[in-house]
Amino acid sequence: xxxxxxxxxxxxxxxxxxxxxxxxxxxxxxxxxxxxxxxxxxxxxxxxxxxxxxxxxxxxxxxxxxxxxxxxxxxxxxxxxxxxxxxxxxxxxxxxxxxxxxxxxxxxxxxxxxxxxxxxxxxxxxxxxxxxxxxxxxxxxxxxxxxxxxxxxxxxxxxxxxxxxxxxxxxxxxxxxxxxxxxxxxxxxxxxxxxxxxxxxxxxxxxxxxxxxxxxxxxxxxxxxxxxxxxxxxxxxxxxxxxxxxxxxxxxxxxxxxxxxxxxxxxxxxxxxxxxxxxxxxxxxxxxxxxxxxxxxxxxxxxxxxxxxxxxxxxxxxxxxxxxxxxxxxxxxxxxxxxxxxxxxxxxxxxxxxxxxxxxxxxxxxxxxxxxxxxxxxxxxxxxxxxxxxxxxxxxxxxxxxxxxxxxxxxxxxxxxxxxxxxxxxxxxxxxxxxxxxxxxxxxxxxxxxxxxxxxxxxxxxxxxxxxxxxxxxxxxxxxxxxxxxxxxxxxxxxxxxxxxxxxxxxxxxxxxxxxxxxxxxxxxxxxxxxxxxxxxxxxxxxxxxxxxxxxxxxxxxxxxxxxxxxxxxxxxxxxxxxxxxxxxxxxxxxxxxxxxxxxxxxxxxxxxxxxxxxxxxxxxxxxxxxxxxxxxxxxxxxxxxxxxxxxxxxxxxxxxx
Length: 658
Hints:
Elements: H1 3-29, H2 34-51, E1 66-69, H3 75-85, H4 90-94, H5 124-142, E2 152-156, H6 158-162, H7 164-176, E3 181-187, E4 190-191, E5 194-195, H8 204-210, E6 214-219, H9 223-234, E7 240-245, H10 268-277, H11 290-296, H12 300-320, H13 324-332, E8 350-352, H14 353-364, E9 371-375, H15 379-382, H16 385-391, H17 410-423, E10 427-433, H18 437-450, E11 455-459, H19 477-482, E12 488-490, H20 495-507, E13 512-515, E14 520-522, H21 528-535, E15 539-542, E16 549-553, H22 557-565, E17 573-577, H23 581-584, H24 589-596, E18 602-606, H25 615-618, E19 623-625, H26 636-642, H27 647-656
Parallel strand pairs: 1-2, 2-3, 3-7, 6-7, 9-10, 10-11, 11-13, 12-13, 16-17, 16-18, 18-19
Antiparallel strand pairs: 4-5, 8-14, 15-17
């Protein structure tokens, strides 16, 4: 047997061993998705054993290639590979999909070493991979191209291809010329309900070539064809889509091509016959013969030597290039947000909070080199234009720029921002109207699950938008965003609160949404003590001993509450600005009691949106002034009068309680 023939036989053995791990893991859990993992395994094996650059001793090495399993239901494919690397014990494969295991049903970056991002909702993995590629390209342009020459690989299935977020992200990736990005499309043409021909007849090659991608078609079970495609991708000046035509459940005894293997364990007899066909014992589970493991790891010494070369390069740059260590630490060193120079708005001035956010972005643009982001074609409305002018656009030829012109692609935009955050070294923000947060919502939720530090700017936050009408006037949006766990919703009352909330958002290890006004609001005065409270999510704007009434308000309604209180001079009124529920409710109980005065019988909330949820603060018998219906097209002053958001009408409602 020639060495080439022997290597080919060894390749087949390792692929079969990996498929055996998939079959056994799904069988142990009595649920899962073996079919796609088996059809994708030839590509995954070649990629991990021969092309993917990583440090076997350090899964967090900055210079590593990133692999993203966008088809997250194929999680056992990734777990099997991580097991062979040595990052995931076999006992965890036995606990697939069980409580507390490191092998959840879909890969989760916060649970499992070697998982770059949480996937499962189809299409979001490949969309996030665009963010990874942007981050690597930008850091290479700013620091050193050789240190950030790593590549981003994503494995997608037929379902991923059908999600709109995929095409939006792919369009932007092609426009930006992200040559470090490679997607592998495992086209087995089967999904849960049957053959994809029932739902689609797209020409994927034409679509992606139209987006500016290089497209390569291969037999997804031919290892040499896969190798050739990956080598071609490495030297391309465009992002690359490799379309691998494969067979669902490849290697099974009698169920190859059967869509029923997509989402269910193999039947007992089929499992036994398949393991015999793969050269594995049907009597033994989770088999990894030593010779198969050795062959899988045959390139590990070379991988480790490449890591040492990278580390030597970094050390050399730090010792020889002026200011390189300082520059490096701006991205990967300890963070200190206390030194940021504040914007000072004049006392008594009127500033829309969206303008304040733009002022802060511009002020801090040079002080925070790791801040990168942009708007969904709303720069003049989101006030991100001054930031864009200060830092320049990230484009194909100017990857050192930090403004991302996302275009009208809200969902891809937020998914891409998640990918930038997960890559490391950068803090992304994105921006659109609050009413369009629904377009981004799946990415907002997945960002919270993954603990992505992304700052989402949502402007035009209420019916005060006026003439654009109900389609653009958010009503339920602020409250619905508060429903997302580990997601920090901020609705500042003025310019100063906006700046404080931005600074707190930078400190978080979770995503945040800053919801901002289009209309001008009076700038409030805060003492040092009040500022410290505001940073915790709430502060007392107007004090009163033993108050008759406590008013809780956010955003533009804080100044409304102040004006209304002036018409209630016979009452002792306490006004609390509550810019961030999530921050405030994490504070100690004695602090919360001091701020919220929960023993006060009459408690009122004012917010230009849904009232459902405010009972948390006002109690079941409290007065909740809000908007539980859609807005209308009219000047904002007319709508404020119509909906009871004037000082006189608010005061009258409060007075009626007495």
